[in-house]
Records
---
Amino acid sequence: MTRKFNFSAGPAALPDEVLQQAQRDLCDWQGKGLSIMEMSHRSDEFVSVAQQAEQDLRDLMSIPDHYKVLFLQGGASSQFAMLPMNLLRGKQTADYINTGIWSKKAIAEASRYCTVNIAATTEAEHFLRAPTPAEIQLSPDAAYLHYTSNETIGGVEFNYIPDSGSVPLIVDMSSDILSGPIDVSRFGVIYAGAQKNIGPAGLTVVIVREDLLGHTLAGTPTMYDYKVHAEGESMHNTPPTFAWYLSGLVFDWLKRQGGVAAMAEVNQRKAAKLYAAIDRSDFYANPVAIDSRSGMNVPFTLADAALDKLFLQQAEAAGLLNLKGHRSVGGMRASIYNAVPEAAVDALLTFMSEFETQHG
Ligand code: PMP
């Protein structure tokens, strides 16, 4: 098996061990003579897999008992609509922090259901930093405050949890969930598409405080009602069973690595050495303010964009995959989620240094 180093932003790298386990399980799960994909979601076997995955996620994130964990479909993008539908609770306004492309999408969708107040934005500075706590202006009548803890495309991450005052704090944690410890009790809702730092595409994890359930906007589709999924243990309809199972293997792997605190240490080392190499050189650059730099997605440009294609070709030949930046910003982006080992970052640094020597 030749596994290369994969810096994809999502769907992203999965741990080798997890894929190997899935391969062993694929045709015959635990001697049952069938695949986990071929079982009823209501079978004892699948229910035990599903419950173990939830328990492991609860352990990893220290999720308090008064939060429900939902395993849904529809991607983080469906949450952009589900949030106002479930959380406006009779109010007409919601506060949103705008830090880039993903916050903007959340704002656009929420604007279909309520008046969005932009509580803070760094758009005038091209989204090259997160706002400071002092810049966040809450409106008096908002139902909640929403922010994006890590802008996957811009590579901008909050290094603090915003204060939402007396209203629930909602976070799109798609690209930095499980990258380190967080205090779940600060949040009303945490949501994340799985395909970056959790597991394969097709699963969306929603962690919601129980008292927020049951106040949906009139006309909300049944499938968009958190309470329906909470009461049905995420089995109101057929859940994405394979993605749920595989995410469970990732949670188990994370526990064996020492949990999110241990991951945070490795993640900090990986990010620190990559940013240090970029900052040391005149050939590579990252424009994001130092205190807002993402620990997960590291965009960088070459001094001469005409070399981008060659960089990507040679990187691929060196076994370093998916370094192309998002089409909206160009340049490069190295996504260094939990499943990207430190050895991958070391190999990238060696390649970058050699490329600079040749072309700098
Ligand atoms: N939010 C963030 C921060 C993302 O990075 C993404 C996906 N790149 C999304 C939302 C949308 O996720 P999905 O494709 O699962 O709808």
---
Amino acid sequence: MPLSIREFEALARDRLPADVYDFVAGGAEDEVTLRANESAFGRLRLLPRVLRGPATRELGVSLLGMDATMPVLIAPTAFHRLAHPEGEKLTARAAAAAGAIMIVSMGSTVAIEDIADAGGQSLALWFQLYVQPDWAVTEALVRRAERAGCRALVVTVDLTVFGRRERDHRNGFHDLPEGLHCENLRGIAGERGVRQIESTPELSWEHIDRLRATTALPIVLKGLMHPLDAVMAVGHGVSGVIVSNHGGRQLDTAMATIDALPDVAEAVNGRIPVLLDGGVRRGTDVVKALALGASAVAVGRPVIWGLAVAGAAGVTQVLELLRDETDRALGLCGCACLHEVTRDLVQAAPC
Ligand code: FNR
């Protein structure tokens, strides 16, 4: 088994068809933001405390009233069957085994009911939603997620226009291959909706209010970067936000998420949990995000690399690597639990 997420990516690259690898790995336009998400973590340095000696660390976290054994969630990524024939079923099994929360993409290639079955009772599933041009479709998706037992609705707000991913254009990778579909839309949307992801270009706070009136599920907004939007989110009664730039796949040259996090966390001021995704590849990245105000992080591509390399066992290994690395980094920073990870443990590297 690979010893790091970077090794997982290298192996996945060897195994996946080149156009699928590019679809997963790629970002928008010049991929400035894609690279920045990872490199910004590299510009931060940890400043550890010593002589506080925690013999063991507690990595558990409670989010929206749900307990997870680690502060790393599975970010919603579409089309897992591109990486493995059993797709999201295996991801769910691995998440359940790790005690991690899985955010299922609206564009999953296995239906949400089957994902819930595969994960079993113990798995906390959150459902990611793109608000659809047709509200009846949006509402039907929400009901489907509720019936399947999903425990939160993650509304992605950074895809009102599709980012231009030039690798996909070069490779002619526009449609799902024959036999793969967005299964959650089957029976809900027309043929087009089952073949490709749609999202309303008119998305506004009114949609968020309407969703709150539609469902009792807690709503988490994914794709916020600006502190003023985070303040608006609190005002509109959402239960959490995920600082995200869609893994650099939408607005190129957007800030790295770890650089945007401190101002968002300050604006939210503990009123709701702030999560982050984008470029998390090591346990030290997790600790840096916690220090800068995140309650937890999520990982997108690493999960797909794990799936491509070794199915459920690969995803489990990716999660366990992150758990193990986070545990070690916490210990070396003198922290016994996540609450002890304070702002002073991170500094910008001198130029
Ligand atoms: C995504 N992402 C995404 N986000 C979302 O809200 N719904 C989706 O269906 C998808 N699909 C998707 C597919 C692929 C192949 C990738 C790489 C990403 C974005 C995802 O949730 C997350 O924001 C980023 O992947 C986080 O960055 P890292 O961890 O991949 O660097």
---
Amino acid sequence: MEWTTKQRYTRIEEVTPQELQALENQVNESPWRQTFHIQPVTGLLNDPNGFSFYNGEYHLFYQWFPLGPVHGIKYWYHTKSKNLTSWENVGIAIRPNDEIDSHGAYSGSAIEYNNELYLMYTGNTRDENWVRHPYQNMAVMDADGAITKWANPVINHVPSGYTDHFRDPKVWKEQDTFYAVIGAQRTDETGCIVLYSSPNMKDWTFEGEVNTNMETFGYMWECPDYFTINGQGILVFSPQGLAPDGDKYHNIYQSGYCLGNLDVKTKTMTHSEFIELDRGFDFYAPQSMEAPDGRRIMVGWMGLPEVDYPTDKHGWAHCLTLPREISIEKGKLMQRPVRELELKRGTKVEAEDVLKNESKSFDGFYGSSFELIAEFINADADSFGIEFRVSEQEKTVLLYDAAQKKVVLDRSNSGAPVGTAFGTSRQCILDATKLKFHLFVDTSSVEIFVNDGEEVFTSRIFPDKESIGIRFFAHSGQASCKAVKWTIGG
Ligand code: FRU
């Protein structure tokens, strides 16, 4: 169904409770509803926003268009959790009902200040000629969870040299100063990041552009994030407009990071190359926060813009990824599922075998929603790995190609097709003879952490609900395999 502009800009407040209930009923019939991921009740979810810990709880907001699976007028929806694992739907946090956000409350971040949680976000507006004007706005949440929007933007214009693609403030604090990075596009249509500072979250000064050595690297950088881990600076952003390059950049848009310290005085960053955070099909616009115990935790949008998904016809689209812990080990960025996810573990099965040019299942190894750890040691197999969500017609394949030293995820037979114009397999180099695959499989997704977080593959898959087989294989030779699987409790 084509959505008219009028439909995309219809607000949730304009529809009746009966209409909303009908939408929700339609969504609940979808065979691909997730069981342990944050997903919208109806409509479309995109970027994680305002990820923070405040008043004893984690808060995670997301971009939301309530009325259908399209990028219509965006709200902030609020979820919260005590343990990063069981999330409670709180409700709408920011409604785009004011002149300064009349065409969408776009992405932003949160920080605690004076015992309240400050939510800094982009208010998207359009003038009578449909030209976009972004403002950077503030909303403040008190300890009772009441959110008050400020009447005036805190940044009310785009500095000269940049277009109206100017959004997604991410705030942090150094000593007594707040800093915000904002994703921007120069007037020559190249992407970059700019820096602002503030003593009080209210008065913001434009410091200038962050100087990197990526002068021409895509046409827009969305959702920047800057943080340090043990003194190592990390700049994360989502550039648009990169062309595929070998195994890299095959999704419509990318998300990745550079290691390097941002000197806020000189706005200069000496940094490593840009590395994709995730090697899968569906990962974009991630945001991170620091947990009370100092861990750096990141969540991404498990989806991409401008791609149709099979759930569209059921009135909803997308979910968030599981929270992952980011660390730097021996100079390399590692990503692991947060340990709190162990709280979800249910019934456990284990198996161990030497696979000799064969593909086999083990007792109790099946399911549509589970956690699985499989450790392989290769002897002389050409390739080995796991097939999951298997039926006669369908399977999703994760393998290690020993000759090419590549991890490969193949969703060409995963079920209902998605984004096939961008290819149906993803791969990356990883030089190892021991491979540990840690999978979280939900009704319509998989997150794969390889060798304790050296690489991650995050993808939506849309199998039939009867496709629940799990098989382990080694081709043209032998590999040993040790596997453990848990059911995941709701
Ligand atoms: C990234 C993004 C952001 C913007 C938001 C709008 O997916 O385009 O740049 O703030 O989504 O929903």
